[in-house]
């Protein structure tokens, strides 16, 4: 009887077991069946086993029946064995003593004639996860690796990795990695080879930080002979193993262009694979290989476009989102290359809204002179969409396109048509956009103002839209006939206005209006200031007070502050810096892309690295603890990959990042500037009105320290004159640095302090970089935002090839620096450390 | 790598829990996930993102027929690998069990455990080819049940290991028993189209698949060629297809797996026209909205177009709807969509749906306009125009029977109003 046939014993449905009494009942039945030699005993056992497992699945604790299950496990029925293995695998860990009972029959099964049973038993044996049973595991594993049957070898290879997780030492002492490696390079079966590779990667990656041998082994995995060995066999592998090989290939550094082309020719047909995972892994290899060859890199984009677009359209909806995220990344990097495929990004009604959102972003990015008309026409259709958030997004998208383009004539018309649609959220979104447009293209003010003037502020409920309207009323009060009166009516309803943002805008708008049309606004201004002064919101109150005193001090100055001559904004700050985009790109074909954040931003430090697991609830096994300590090398390597952008890149990005961060701090108090936008060209406005940029917060940190009595800038005692002299012009390229950093052991790690002036003057990484350069210590990469900065420095001993590599993390708030030094020559590390610290402590004092 | 796979019912109940690595995942994660589903998609797991980050794990999920396949990992990995794998698990289980739903999974959970055990080891996908799996774990079909009864053998595990694990064509077992010596090739196309508010065809693409059902003895060599391969824009192949012949002369040369499989999928973009037209008109004033939808044949494919339906969501803020059609049936479904089932277009009249939507009090105009989703099916024609040239079968003892078919159906065919 097959297990699918409903049996009479199953009268109590397995999905609704009754709990404790059921377990007791099952125990009873098992005990009864244990010694039974009745001809149908196996069938009965099977029924009971099924019920036990169904209880287990339903979350009922059936561990009490462990002993009985083991007693019943002596059987020749394979399905029974499988069920028993499953049960034992789940519960052995909590019953290590009883698990010992199972070892016997598992070991016997490992020597069975039938390879299926040998394989299954070996797999179960490795899944017991009981540390003190490890000794029973090693021999069957070693035999399994030499088994004549493919199935058993396949399982044994993976089993070795499992053993490593239970007890790393047992695995290494038995020299299993070496056996795996031999098997990997010689076994005729592709799946065995793939499993060996998988196991070896897992073992050596985790082991790399403990032993240099393992780190070297990893290097050999990525070496040319091994990578080419795998690539040449790639068609023999299963699709999943192909992914593994492709991942390996993407980390391989070819020595010359011929190798790159060889690999790409070999892998080109993988782009046509039915499995999306293989296609994406191949794309990653292509992108990484051609990183340094701009022309070829572009051709790669052209080549991978079609497969990606097909995957998006033809794959299951589940796949299409992940693929779309990757496509999104590529589109954002090279919008021009996709500009002719704009139709592929049109939203379909049946797309889920997260897909629509991605598509809208891509449409926005690829809009250029040739396709703007079609794209904007399409986007305008979405504005009437049933899905309100998408309707909003599409209006914003139209606005963004308008801000990108020079020929905005048609777009402005469309936006103004939105205002006539008479739907409140459409109007609100459009107003915000019209405001931004006017800031960039003041020449359109006449057309816009005519339409905006017709909008009654009473119809707009959303604070952002209302604020935008009020901004326009203030800014263009000279052109809008009844601006003072509209503002006046708004002021009358001050109490009913719940959003502080709107009230802030109202304050400023009335001020602006006052300077443009004093007689009509004077009354309103008085009322506004009075209302503002008695406002409960701190920002509103403060700004009202500020205006009041400013007017009191000198109206002319007040006018300069409120109505300065403005230049049109040419560039709006991007929300995501190019640096972050680059990092995401480096992690192509990973979760990173789906989240659109580099992994350091969404993963815990503890939860990173390809094989790094954390035991979240139970921390029982030795293996798990070892894991925690072991991964660090891998993690750092990854970290460093993230950070190792060349210094020159950094300089450009630095400003972008700063802007990004300050945009958020400007958010609340800003009246003249729409929250997500920041103009670098209106410094007078921003500086005067917005307190609390990064500069100020730094200073306030400093003064806070002062108040706490840490004030006096104490220069640390000068370290003894260093016996070490440094080469004034060392040369080290980022690639070599990265490699060295990965290879060398840590010579020194310590905390040291900066002078307080130093900490305070460290407003961007460049200042420290220049300072350290004057001490012959070069920076290769830097990053971070206040108050945390991270630097990678290097220096070379004068007249020798000895390099010193430094990772330095500085917290300006505490004026402390974490320094990690790695050196080619460990003995000189101390001397260098002293030199480095003295240089660091002098920063800011000169 | 995937640490654990759960199968959840449509109420969030754990039906199967399969731990694959030494790092156990507590099933509390399923509770967390279900709360997430309740919060973000009102309990419909198919509507949440496929990749979800929980406080402790990254979760991948694929939802089929109310069964959610949930996989957990704590490490960085290619997301598509997880999603493809879960889809494959779902496909394999459907193949084994005939269908996929909560009851079937619960009745066959032992089989599900066995299959999962072979499909994944230590968090890494292992054997996912249905042909090979079926050699290892015999599916619970009637034949095997009969056999069991007759022979008294009560195991559904194959008594010998698949030969294919050692073969260089992993998708094919070397010994095919009782093959009926026939091969069927089937083109299935889906037409995606988008018509904008002005009635212009914005986008029209066909996604096609070539399905092969092969039942041939030995190791047959097949070559399939097309009359017009140049119209194809992008192709994806089953692993059995050799790349070189396609590259050089657009010929599909392959050794097929036994049974049904997708030989190739392709995309044909920039089609010029759709076989039928759907013209919706909505005009609204003083609280009423007149609806008129016309459907007719635009471009006769030469074969009957059947199963035509037009479906659209009723706009929000509608007080009442009164819609009738001169042909076919009109139903207002529970989720506030109107389904107009036409079937075939009659020869003597043009089907049209008309009626009135009464807007809610205080509204004069309709602000949101529905999108009409059109479905149809045409047997015997591939609308992209793709045609077979010939199919050669070599290496079989006798000439097999060869069958060809084609079919097109509407995929995402949307008409905006």
Question: How is this structure best described in words?
Answer:
The complex is a heterodimer of chains A (846) and B (417). In chain A, strand 3 (788-796) and strand 4 form a beta hairpin. The radius of gyration of chain A is 34 Å and the shape is globular. In chain A, strands 1-5-4-3-2 form a five-stranded antiparallel beta sheet, sandwiched between helices. Chain A is built from 43 helices and five strands. In chain B, 18% of the residues lie in helices and 41% in strands. In chain B, a hairpin with a 2-residue loop joins strand 6 and strand 7. Chain B starts with a strand and ends with a strand. Residues 142-168 of chain B have low confidence and may be disordered. The chains are: A mainly alpha (846), B alpha+beta (417). At the A-B interface, helix 2, helix 4, helix 6, helix 8 and helix 11 of A face strand 2, strand 4, helix 2, helix 4 and strand 7 of B.
Distance between the termini of chain B: 46 Å
Give the overall average pLDDT of chain B.
Answer: 82
Number of helical segments with 4 or more residues of chain B: 7
How would you sum up the global shape of chain A?
globular
Low-confidence stretches of chain A: 1-17, 603-722
Number of helices of chain A: 43
**What portion of residues of chain A is helical?**
55-70%
Can you list the strand order of the major beta sheet of chain A?
Answer: 1-5-4-3-2
Question: How would you sum up the global shape of chain B?
Answer: flat
Radius of gyration of chain A: 34 Å
Structural class of chain A: mainly alpha
Gyration radius of chain B, to the nearest Å? Answer: 25 Å
Using DSSP, what is the number of strands of chain B?
A: 23
Strand order of the largest sheet of chain B: 11-13-9-8-23-21-16-19-18
**How would you characterize the largest beta sheet of chain B?**
9 strands, mixed
Q: Which parts of chain B are unreliable, with pLDDT below 50 for 5 consecutive residues or more?
A: 142-168
Give the N-terminus to C-terminus distance of chain A in angstroms. 89 Å
Residues in helix, % of chain B? 10-25%
